[in-house]
């Protein structure tokens, strides 16, 4: 079957357009329990009005006592709130969150949990932070407004069962509206896979995840991308990467940081060629991609709560337009029932989010780790950060054995997973033991699936769980790096990262080619 077979909707005759009422409008996100941002915005608005009223009275009535009183009361309330938040955050984060998540409708919970989610969500990006919390509080604890159940079996069971989702990127809350397709007549709908529930979840959005995922995989990761991955254009890109490596200091940070050359420049061109069929020599297209992919942090903020409200979406729209006209979507048929009536615009916008959040950031980071530019996290009490993987890459790894190189990549991803957590929403009330006490949390509570925690769990990986050992027998079958238990696709692993094999195969070739170059230089020295 060719890629072309995939692109044509299997259930529609060409040219037939679906009536607009077949399009499912964007439904409100499930479980209002978790969407607390509106409450916080409301509180801020009340405070702003309060202060505004004070100012107005002050200017209207002159130096009047009543005006000053209103103004001072506003300032005082704000200061008190800020002070109590700082105290809670610094001194009682875990215990406050246990209480607040058990009492989600209490105004204090409503007020503080979203702020804790934002601040602690940023800290939790570092896998060592969550491991530190587990050492402090035990297997179950709270972090970033979510309950963390870090037992390996719990994580595995979450990954293997249907999940209810909310707009979260692991521990970080996202702005749901920044994912809306916006193309469908009669209203836009949420197409962002990470925020959509599985097909057996009860709410409306649940019917979309499977078909939308299928549409994305069939159009961007089908046979066309497989053949492009090894054709002459892909090989030429790998040649350029090798040349850049030699010219840019054999692994100096410039090779990883440069936006248009080196590792990042290669991956931007290579992934857009393989997945979307875009011409890597088209400099005008590469110019359009640069603002979005040339760096990680700033463009990513567009999706993160609340930072995204202060960013512009211009470059996202330009890239989505570029994707719409990409060779991979040339013959795309819109409104196919099997893909839940997806339009080209919706698919392109979904792909922008996937490329920005998963494909570029994750792979650039993992590449930087396996090539020794980015050290492992500083896990407290362990010397993991001191491990120099270049010593293994240069002297121990059998570069002629692709399976050995793959295991090396998986071991790096175990110790430093680019995506260290995902987030689901509990469908039912549940109990968890925390700090020696049993706590009951209501349905709707967010639960963090800690891939990073599971991958250094000594009960599974043994006493050497924080050491580097690419010969671990469980690596392929128990890695959680790609959102499933192990790398083998299965019926249960419905949310397994579909980019897994592209990432692993590319990194194996890159490590082999650059590794041989390094050994040649080492020999000469
Ligand atoms: C080292 C690189 C990568 C890592 C570690 C990684 C890991 C992950 C993880 C852990 C998830 C689940 C996130 C969640 O549910 O909250 C995920 C989802 C996803 N990834 Fe990747 N990914 C990588 C690269 C890629 C690439 C290159 C693609 C290219 C298409 C890709 C496409 C996706 C998609 C479409 C999803 C959503 C799957 C779904 O919800 O059904 N990823 N990835």
From TrEMBL:
InterPro entries: Cyt_P450_sf. Keywords: Membrane, Transmembrane, Transmembrane helix. It comes from the Eukaryota. One of its GO terms (molecular function) is heme binding. The chain crosses the membrane at residues 37-61, 67-92. This is Cytochrome P450. It comes from Polarella glacialis.
